[in-house]
Amino acid sequence: EIFLRMHQVLAALSAYTTWQHLPLKSLFPRVYIYILAGIFLATLIWQCGIVIYRNRARGRGYCRAFITTLDEDESHNSKEEVVKIRLALSRKLKVKAGQSINLWIPSVSFWSFMQSHPFMVTSWAEGHQDTLELFIEPRRGLTRELLRCGKYDMKINRSRLALFSGPHGISTPVCAYESVIMIATGFGIAAQLPYLKELIHGYNNCKARTRRVHLVWQLQSIGNVNSIHA
User: Fold this and answer.
1) Cα–Cα distance, 200 to 217 (Å, whole number)
2) Number of helical (H) and strand (E) elements in the chain, helices listed first
3) Which backbone phi and psi does 206 adopt, to 5 degrees?
4) What are all long-range contacts of 173-178, with beta carbons under 8 Å and residues at least 24 apart?
5) pLDDT digits (tens, 9 = 90+) for 81-128
């Protein structure tokens, strides 16, 4: 977030200094600044409109995030802690396997209102979904705060206001191949889950050509298997 905000500030400063160096009595050079500002504002308004439309529906309010964690019994005493977020959407959304969303939850920490992070969507459905599931490995910053909030929210059954943009990314048409090989390291298996769900669904409904799936999953300890399985 520090790099992103610095980039935005420097971009605005660059536009301002360019404006100040243009001659005041000449309109033609400043037309380029007007065009650039117009494109930026139009894009910003368009993106904000899409975000508001997807996050709020009449009579249903905004999207809500239910943050939970895997306790010791669920993770079989694994040292790895996992955060699970279930997003209750205001509008149903079509998310393909392999796509992600940018998530913004302002109440997680003091600085979280300025932070939005991309997370892979691990849930999958053939049609539109009314809930999205995210599995997150806590590290530092926002993800560590999500772990803290999840432990607290589970006790009082609390949900939090959340906004998201997306889905982003390109989905690979895995069902078009007879043999599929998947490679993941550690928690990266979460990104393969929606593809596996799509392959199983396609196979059971005779919509996929896939006959063999080879999964290569590198782990540091067997406890990671229990965490993901839970």
Assistant:
1) 18
2) 5, 11
3) 55, 40
4) 174/97, 174/198, 174/199, 174/208, 174/210, 175/199, 175/202, 175/207, 175/208, 175/209, 175/210, 176/209, 177/209, 177/210, 178/209, 178/210, 178/211, 178/212
5) 789 999 999 989 999 999 999 999 888 877 777 788 899 999 999 889
CA atoms within 13 A on the CB side of 56: 11
Phi and psi for 56 in degrees, rounded to 5?
-145, 130
Q: How far is CA 190 from CA 49, 56, 69, 156, in A?
A: 30, 28, 15, 27
Structure tokens at 79: 């040292």
pLDDT digits (tens, 9 = 90+) for 167-194: 999 998 998 899 999 998 888 888 899 9
